[in-house]
Specification:
By secondary structure, this protein is an alpha/beta fold. The chain has two domains: 265 residues, Aldehyde Dehydrogenase, Chain A, domain 1; 185 residues, Aldehyde Dehydrogenase, Chain A, domain 2 (3-Layer(aba) Sandwich). Helix content is 37%, strand content 22%. The protein has 14 helices and 21 strands. The strands form six sheets. The chain has a seven-stranded mixed beta sheet with strand order 14-15-16-13-12-18-19, with helices on both faces. It is globular, with a radius of gyration of 24 Å.
Length: 495
């Protein structure tokens, strides 16, 4: 089969990069398969894309918000029709099983329907004035041109988190997809085009972070950068945006933990740990990489977990019998192998996994065994640093207070979970866990789009995506005072 070459999307046209260079998108489950060839763009391509977004800014801002929303509703309708093909393309380019890629597409659909509804709200406030014959209100204004830099692990859901609220609030956008998963964003952009989005409102440039992402950060006509990715890259983006006095929204890493108390339903807890630790091969910012378990049930829970982890079917995500796909690339596999060595050196006990998965159909992919460590102390590197792979560490605790302290002893604060039958413990944990998301009797993954998504500390910079909270990222507040008294009123001075 001929390998297809995809172009950038700038000002409503599909165009080749100024560099004349391409890169290949490889299937991580079968490295002999090239999913497609994409533009290895450079700063001049970013310049063209930003110029198109800047030119379209006035037209799009002046388009009534309900009309903007109608286009986004059409985007959702098209995604519904094309859900299966979108999911299959996603599995081919990033590896996670079809059940998960279908969920990724569904999340984008849900987010789009929900956020498009804001086109008829975008509410501000009306408040009483302290003076007679004067009216006070606040309204939302678009920020301007938004630069979106998105990761490979949720290659449709996360772009939707950024683009849909940005567009419904009247911003224009330039998106740089991850190098490992450009096809899903190409498919997304094609849907916007099919839905009738005007030229220049959405632009896409593929390529590397240094050659495309950083020029977006530095471009004077990019008003806001929305980034999801690593802590290290996010820190650089924060510094770069601060230098240019532009706004930025960061969603970065996590070192998420599930607490299992002695009264927990252990069967349910193991299901949650398996889903949290090994779903998407552990390659989620919300993945469960620590289990803080009460010492009374530690051995029983660990035995149950290891038995289930060993039985997980690893293989190509397009085979619906498989339960876990590959890691994204060779660098990810090398990083996981490094942390396996670190865990052993630190004195942790590895109970299963720890190596590349072998077997029929696995030789050409980046498959890795589900891995469980026990005898892990809270200060070990495997209990502190984000591994981003199918590795989970079991840590013992004596009570809920100690468990919460262990969870909070992290530079990240994204997601946490507690398994207990005690409602008092549940509410205590909700109060005390220093994370942006907390689950009770559920895993650390599975957020819904109608609530804010994001975390504390090194996970982000205080913004939240999804829900109505996303509007705060992509809008500026304007306070409006209308004086119909016919005379100069001096507010506090007149008091």
């Amino acid at each position: 089969m001929a390998i297809k070459t995809w172009k950038n999307y700038i000002d409503g046209k599909w165009v080749a990069a100024q560099t004349g260079e391409l890169f290949e998108n490889i299937n991580p489950a079968n490295t002999s398969e090239v999913v497609g060839r994409f533009q290895r763009s450079g700063p001049r391509d970013v310049q063209k894309a930003v110029a198109a977004a800047h030119k379209a800014k006035k037209m799009w801002r002046e388009t009534p918000a309900p009309k903007r929303a109608e286009i986004l509703y059409r985007v959702a309708e098209i995604m519904v029709r094309e859900k299966e093909s979108l999911a299959r393309d996603m599995t081919r380019e990033m590896g996670k099983i079809l059940a998960e890629t279908r969920g990724d597409v569904q999340e984008a659909i849900d987010l789009t329907y929900f956020t498009a509804g804001e086109g008829r709200r975008l509410a501000g406030e009306t408040v009483p004035s302290e003076l007679k014959n004067k009216f006070c209100m606040s309204v939302r204004m678009p920020v301007g041109v938004v630069g979106c830099i998105t990761p490979w692990n949720f290659p449709l859901a996360i772009p939707s988190w950024k683009l849909i609220p940005a567009l419904v609030t009247g911003n224009t956008a330039v998106i740089k997809p991850a190098e490992d998963t450009p096809l899903s964003v190409v498919n997304f952009v094609k849907i916007f085009e099919q839905a009738g989005l005007p030229p220049g409102v959405l632009n896409m440039v593929t390529g590397t972070g240094p050659e495309v992402g950083w020029p977006m950060v530095e471009h004077p006509q990019v008003d806001l950068v929305s980034f999801t990715g690593s802590y290290e890259t996010g820190s650089l983006i924060a510094a770069g945006c601060a230098t240019h006095m532009k706004q930025y929204s960061l969603e970065m890493g996590g070192k998420n933990a599930i607490i299992v108390m002695d009264d927990a339903n252990l069967d349910l807890a193991v299901e949650g740990i398996l889903f949290g630790a090994f779903g998407t091969t552990g390659q989620r910012c919300t993945a469960c990489s620590r289990v803080i378990v009460h010492r009374k049930v530690q051995k029983k829970l660990t035995d149950m977990l290891v038995k289930r982890a060993r039985a997980l079917k690893v293989g190509d995500g397009l085979n619906e019998k498989n339960e876990m796909g590959p890691l994204i690339n060779s660098e990810a596999q090398a990083k996981v192998e490094l942390y396996i060595r670190i865990g052993k050196t630190e004195g942790a006990k590895m109970l299963c996994g720890g190596a590349a998965a072998k077997g029929r159909g696995l030789s050409k992919g980046y498959f890795f065994q589900p891995t469980v460590f026990t005898d892990v102390s809270p200060k070990m590197r495997i209990a502190q640093e984000e591994i981003f792979g199918p590795v989970v560490s079991v840590v013992s605790c004596k009570n809920l207070e100690e468990a919460v302290d262990i969870v909070n002893d992290s530079k990240y604060g994204l997601s946490s979970a507690l398994y207990t039958q005690d409602v008092n413990r549940a509410f205590q944990a909700i109060r005390d866990l220093d994370t942006g998301i907390t689950y009770i009797n559920a895993s650390t993954i599975g957020a819904e789009i109608q609530l804010p998504f994001g975390g504390t500390k090194g996970t982000g910079n205080g913004h939240r995506e999804a829900g109505t909270a996303a509007l705060e990222i992509f809008t500026e507040w304007k306070s409006v005072y209308i004086d119909y008294s016919g005379k100069l009123q001096k507010a506090q001075i007149d008091h």
